[in-house]
């Protein structure tokens, strides 16, 4: 797990010279998160909060690298317990750049998600996600966005899978802000 995060960090740092430091975006959002598979047998629907920052790659139109932090919680279906989740993902995103106010995008990423049952100890695991959604340009420097993603967290011999549906705002900065 730590080796995977180290490889991800090295890949992001190696690509930094190709990134255009003059343009990027940051965002905040919230999601309703539905457990699927075996996780749906023990967890209720929950929530996630998301914050992140992205850097646009100048040599590749519509491609960006971003770092995302997540915090969420799911209640247990049996008893009064809950599980809190804290994580970090490194994502690659492709946005279809066009002249309209609508901006469709897809993304994929890998990271670490720590799950902590109420009263228990924290367990950090590797996790991956894929997703897609739409942004809507309100102003040159303010967008609304919404996406759906599929997350898989490696847990003791199986995987915990979630489908968060997220909404939020993003603020582009640099030379893309006035698109």
Task: Characterise the protein shown here.
The protein has 179 residues and is mainly β. The protein has one domain (2-174): Porin (Beta Barrel), CATH 2.40.160. It has two helices and eight strands. The chain has an eight-stranded antiparallel barrel with strand order 1-2-3-4-5-6-7-8. Strand 7 and strand 8 form a beta hairpin. The protein is elongated.
Summary keywords:
Porin; elongated; mainly beta; 179 residues; eight-stranded antiparallel β-barrel; 10% helix
Q: Give, in spatial order, the strands making up the sheet with the most strands.
A: 1-2-3-4-5-6-7-8
CATH topology: Porin
- Unreliable spans are 4-10, 12-20
Question: What's the CATH class label?
Answer: Mainly Beta
CATH architecture title: Beta Barrel
Order of helices and strands: HEHEEEEEEE
Number of helices: 2
- Termini distance? 39 Å
Label the overall shape.
elongated
Q: State the helicity in percent bands.
A: 10-25%
What would the average pLDDT be, to the nearest integer? 85
Over the alpha carbons, how many angstroms does the gyration radius reach? 17 Å
Please count the beta strands (DSSP E, at least 2 residues each).
Answer: 8
Structural class, judged by helices and strands? mainly beta
Our count of domains comes out at 1
User: What profile does the largest beta sheet have?
Assistant: 8 strands, antiparallel, barrel
Please indicate the percent range of residues in DSSP E strands (runs of 2 or more): over 45%
């Amino acid at each position: 797990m730590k080796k995977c995060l180290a490889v991800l960090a090295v890949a992001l740092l190696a690509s930094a010279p190709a990134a255009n430091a003059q343009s990027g975006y940051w965002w905040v959002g919230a999601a309703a998160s539905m457990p699927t598979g075996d996780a749906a047998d023990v967890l209720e629907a929950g929530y996630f909060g998301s914050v992140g920052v992205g850097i646009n790659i100048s040599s590749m139109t519509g491609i960006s690298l971003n770092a995302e932090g997540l915090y969420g919680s799911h209640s247990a279906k049996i008893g009064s317990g809950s599980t809190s989740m804290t994580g970090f993902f490194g994502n690659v995103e492709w946005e279809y750049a066009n002249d309209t106010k609508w901006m469709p995008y897809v993304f994929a990423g890998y990271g670490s998600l720590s799950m902590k049952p109420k009263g228990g100890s924290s367990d950090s695991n590797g996790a991956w996600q894929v997703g897609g959604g739409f942004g809507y340009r309100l102003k040159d420097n303010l967008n609304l966005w919404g996406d759906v993603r599929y997350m898989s967290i490696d847990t003791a011999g199986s995987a915990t899978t979630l489908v968060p549906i997220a909404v939020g705002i993003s603020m582009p900065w640099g030379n893309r802000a006035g698109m």
